[in-house]
Structure formats: C-alpha cells, structure tokens
Design goal:
This protein has 14 helices and 15 strands. The chain has 386 residues and is of the alpha/beta class. The strands form four sheets. An eight-stranded mixed beta sheet has the order 7-6-15-13-14-12-10-11. It has a three-stranded antiparallel beta sheet with strand order 3-4-5.
C-alpha cells in the first residue's frame, strides 16, 4: 500500500514537473533565438545588452551581474509579466511602483530625491563662485519643484515624501545675493489647480513653464508678464510619459503637449547642435512626435551644447545651464536674446570660462528640476573645470 501511494505521488509530481520543464525550455530557447532588443518602447528606456565574457569580468564578478541584468531585460514575455505584477500590486492596494506614486485621479508623481549633502554643497559653492567671479554678468537661478512637492495633496493616503520646499529654501539661502532667485515654488503653488505638471510624466507642462517665465521678468531682465504674449497650440494629444513607462500605471492615459509661439513680428532661429555638427531652423523636432518620448519635441531632447541664434534686435547673449525642464522654457526667451548658449552639465566636458569669452556672454541662468539638481554630481565639475 505504501509503495502504491509512493508511485502515485511520483506520477503526480512528474505530471506537474513536465509542463514546467517544457515551459522553461520554451522560454530558454526563445531567449536564445530572439534577437537582443536595444530599446523598450513600453518602458521608454535602453535595455541591457549581452555582456562580453572576459577573464577580468569573471574574476571581478561583473560578468554575472551584467548577464543577470541582460536576462532580466531580454526575458521573453517581460512586458506581459510586468503588466501582471502591476495589476496584482494595484489589486492588493499598493500605490507605489518603482519609485512612482499613483496619486488621486491617477496623477503620477516621482518620489523626492534626498540629496547627497557633500555633492550638493559642491554644486552650490560652484554656482556661487561662478556668479561672483563673473560679477559683470547678471546670473539667475530657477529651481523647479517636483509634482510631489506642489501636488502633495494628490499623494496617495499614508504616502510621505521628503520636504523639498525646505531643500529649495536651503539652496536659496546658501547662494545668498550672488544670484537673482526666481521663486518657482510660489508661482506653481498659485496655479497648482491647473495642469502645470503632466499626469504621466515627470516634467512640468509648457503652461507651468510659462507661468514661471512670466514671473521671472525682473531676474532675467526681460519684459513683464503684461507685455510678454505667447499663443499656445497642441502638437500632440497622445502623449504618455516616463512615469507611466517606469511604473506601469496609467498606460492608457493620453495627454496633450502644447508649444507656445510669440505673437507679433516673426522671429527666425538657427539651432546649432555643436558636438553633433548639425543645424536646424526650428526649436522643435516634429519627428519625436512619432516616438514614445514625445517630450523630446522640444529641441529634440538633451545635448551637451547648443548655440541658438535669433534675429531679434538685441545685443544680449544668454548662457544657460540646464536639465530637460529647460527645453520647453527656452522658446520663451528667444524674443529677448540675440543668442542663447545652452549647456547640459551631464554631457558637457568643455571649458565654461572659454564659452563665456568666446560667445561674449552678457547674462546667465541656471534652470533645473529639483530632483535632477539634488542628484546631479556634474555641475560643480563643469563649472570648476575639475
């Protein structure tokens, strides 16, 4: 009797194991046969490539780490399993996925970055020293808060994020009188019931950028908000942003991207992508509207160095240090500067002091999203040449 039960148990186990082994074999063969994907449209990011096997990578263990990342990214059925996980987590009441909160009305918000104090201290010191050593060049700072800071009432129940307002105030205090400060927090607070942030993306909307531009006239030395007139119009209504891609939330949500054009006289521009050695006559790249990353319609994305020349009747030349938040802000500045030189410290490796002299810079502005600013360890290196 005991042997009969044992044989029956073995048969049941074999019945269960065989389908599992077959499925495992199918997945293994599929992963081998399918070509390596370089980019995920669903997640809007580059995928890990098959690592090269070397003696050094085996000894250090980096090969196995890289190969594990490769398998995770290239695993057949990854998108299906990812979607299933998000659905299960949501059903269980989870409102956070991969550092993204799903707030009220489906508003997605990135968690607030806690800065490395040593890196932050170096960055602020470098900006202050740059402004003081170029005292003849008016320098402004626009530090844009994240949605989780302004739309904190939209956070899911019991969710808590770090106090970004306090962090931003600390930067302002440390910079002191060396720069003209633009209070983006107060401006966006005033308009937080309007769509100043995308629902599915980590960027502010062009409307949010426009409100901050209107209030930055004094610091930037441009016309007041009563005199600055721009007309918005939509270039797409099917935008689904990076936070949706990162979290798996709100994948069916479609949003509008607007661009603002100055009213009055026609203004021509020439955008020189210096390192790429290409030029265009538009601030917008319409080909990006056919891709997942539609926000890249502004300037085509992020580049190390741009030189934007305009036909405006002015002698002022602006040097801007920025992250991607500035891409939709720059068009508001073109009616007021003959030339705008744009530096992204995450990619730029040249000499900043040489830029100032070569382009005869008359004004300077730092425009950053707070999360990027508090995590970026490149700013001080670019400004100091280290």
């Amino acid at each position: 009797m005991a042997n009969k039960k044992k044989r029956k148990k073995i048969k049941i186990q074999a019945f269960l194991v065989k389908p599992f082994l077959i499925c495992l074999g199918v997945f293994m063969i599929g992963n081998i046969l399918l070509p390596t994907r370089e980019y995920s449209e669903v997640e809007n990011r580059s995928l890990a490539k098959r690592p090269r096997l070397t003696l050094s990578s085996l000894q250090t263990g980096t090969f196995m780490e890289q190969y594990e990342d490769y398998l995770m990214d290239q695993f057949i059925g990854r998108n299906l399993l990812r979607d299933l996980k998000v659905r299960i987590d949501t059903f269980a009441g989870n409102k956070e996925e991969n550092g993204v909160y799903r707030g009220k009305q489906g508003q997605l918000m990135e968690d607030v970055v806690i800065p490395d104090q040593e890196v932050l201290k170096k960055n602020v010191k470098a900006i202050k020293e740059f402004a003081e050593s170029n005292s003849g060049i008016p320098t402004s700072m626009i530090l844009v808060p994240d949605a989780a800071c302004i739309l904190e009432d939209e956070l899911p129940s019991l969710a808590t994020v770090a106090n970004q307002r306090t962090m931003i105030k600390s930067v302002k205090r440390e910079l002191g009188e060396s720069v003209s400060w633009v209070d983006a927090v107060s401006v966006l607070d005033t308009h937080k019931n309007e769509k100043v942030y995308y629902k599915t993306d980590h960027h502010w909307t062009t409307l949010g950028a426009y409100y901050v531009f209107q209030e930055s006239g004094s610091a930037l030395g441009v016309q007041s908000k009563e005199e600055s007139t721009f007309s918005p119009y939509a270039v797409t209504t099917t935008f689904n942003g990076t936070l949706s891609s990162k979290s798996g939330y709100e994948e069916n949500e479609k949003e509008e991207i607007d661009i603002y054009t100055p009213q009055g006289e026609d203004l021509d521009v020439v955008v020189n992508y210096v390192q790429e050695q290409k030029k265009t006559t538009s601030l917008y790249d319409s080909t990006k509207l056919d891709t997942k990353d539609k926000y890249a319609v502004f300037l085509g994305g992020n580049y190390s160095l741009l030189d934007i020349k305009t036909t405006v009747n002015a002698k002022r030349k602006l040097l801007m240090f920025k992250d991607s938040y500035a891409n939709c802000f720059i068009p508001f500045l073109t009616p007021y500067f003959r030339e705008i030189v744009v530096v992204d410290p995450r990619y730029y490796t040249g000499d900043v002091s040489e830029l100032v002299g070569t382009y005869n810079i008359t004004d300077c502005v730092f425009l950053y999203n707070a999360n990027t600013f508090f995590a970026d360890n490149n700013i001080s290196g670019v400004l100091t040449g280290e």
